[in-house]
Amino acid sequence: MKSICIFAGSSFGNDFEYVEKARELGKIMAENGFSIVYGGSKNGLMGEIANEVLSHDGEVVGIMPRGLIKGENVHSQLTKLIEVDTMHERKAKMSELADGYIALPGGLGTFEELFEVLCWAQIGIHHKPIGVLNVNGYYDPLLNLINHCIQKGFSGEIHKSIISSSSDPETLLSLMVNYVPKEIEYKWNHQNVSLKKEK
């Protein structure tokens, strides 16, 4: 694993530790030879981790739809900026270039990106490690929701193994480097459930 896709807020949030941990993760990644692929913005936590990787001579690849380049204030110091036409192309390119994924604190866009790669892992599209930097319990509600989903029978217990979580950047990277995908039986292959309305 050499290249990690970063999902993160384009805002800073209201807890300065979000910024501190983003910077810490960026520093550790660069020092250990990891490059990052991300949305290309200079704003918020996205910008903070990019700045930190760059300041420690790491590689940062930004991917941004042409229509957002002005609005999202594209980072001007990136190792490489890739322009695409749509948000779908952006996410596809990020995934193509990444060996793993880490979500920092963020908003709806971050959740959407995270759940998409979790879904892809669940159905076998990829077997890459996925982690969340759970700063001050930011992702506790999301992890609890996944547990609730399992308890209610919409996901299997094994699906918890898809996501790694830690509040410590170094620990999270270690979990991802040592991640071994488990054999997952796809639920629709063995369900015998009729979706036809009974008469």
TrEMBL record:
Q: Could you confirm whether the keyword Hydrolase appears in this record?
A: yes
KW Hydrolase (keyword) present: yes
Q: Which UniProt keywords apply?
A: Cytokinin biosynthesis, Hydrolase
Q: What is its EC number?
A: 3.2.2.n1
InterPro entries cross-referenced by the UniProt entry: LOG (IPR005269), LOG_fam (IPR031100)
Top EC class for this record? hydrolase
Give the family, as the similarity comment puts it: Belongs to the LOG family.
What is the protein name given in its UniProt record?
Answer: Cytokinin riboside 5'-monophosphate phosphoribohydrolase
Question: To which species is this protein native?
Answer: Neobacillus ginsengisoli
Starting at the broadest rank, the lineage of the source organism is:
Bacteria, Bacillati, Bacillota, Bacilli, Bacillales
